[in-house]
Specification:
Layout (H helix, E strand, L loop, with lengths): L1 E5 L3 E6 L12 E6 L6 E7 L9 E15 L6 E7 L23 E5 L5 E6 L1 H9 L7 E4 L8 E4 L11 E8 L1 E4 L3 E4 L5 E2 L3 E2 L4 E8 L6 E8 L6 E2 L2 E3 L2 E3 L2 E3 L9 E5 L7 E8 L7 E10 L1
Antiparallel strand pairs: 1-11, 2-4, 3-4, 3-10, 4-9, 5-8, 5-10, 5-11, 6-7, 6-9, 12-24, 13-24, 14-23, 15-23, 16-22, 16-24, 17-18, 17-21, 17-23, 19-20
Amino acid sequence: MATTVFTPTDNVYISEYYYYQNFSGSSSLYCGQYDGSGDIYRSILRFDLESLPAFCTITDAKLKLFIYRNDAPAVSRTINVYQALSYVPQNIVTYANQPLSPGSPEASLIISSELDTYLEFDLTNLVKGWYTGSIPNNGIVVTGLESDNALAGFRNGYYDNSNCWPLLEVDYVKGIITTYPVQNVVTTTNWVGSQPIPLGTRTATITVVNTGSTYDAAVELEISPDGVAWGWAPFMTASGVFIVTPLPANGYLGDNTVVFHTSGYSGAYARVSYVCRDGNDPTTLSIYATTTEG
């Protein structure tokens, strides 16, 4: 796993009181109400993700804001982070032309007396959308308590100490990983194949768990060039080639889980075939599949 830390390309606050004024270049970000009704502050940030590898899977993304001002330490309130629905550059954004936000925040954090520390917000789903292009990267809007005086202040990228700058920490693994829905099946006396997984340039990992409490199953990995004709992929062991892989029931002698990998086998599709073993009655299996590209 790798981690890339981004600093914002845009980070600026807006003020309801100074409705048409732009505050680009200030070393602070504010959110919440400052001095009564009509004096609300919000902050807008944007991060450019272009330096991420072309083929990777984001596993975690956290926004970190360093809080240096807390006007209401006795008040428990929520800081919200919203997706911005349009992009307004930081050098022209004001309260008057601020981007709209959805009704629900991407992340929320309840604070009270926090000070001189980083606050963390989980933005994994939003950042995944930015990376894949399914969500336009218009940035985010940070809000605080807007019904009572409780201003919170954060350092931004113009502050002279970079140890306090806003950060977006993104964890990722190389390769695009696709996770398929779990298949829950019941074995019969005839071999049956699971839902095929398309391969192409990808490799697949398929995990099969015997969730039954009594009866064994037999399972095997199958490879197909066209999704129609299927053949077993042999697995070499010290004692030779196993035609099938036995899968004991949960709680019985042996491991009730087997993991198949398609690395080293050529084919356009992969699946698991399964059957009742040695005349046993049916058992239930759960089949988990992921593919990796790149």
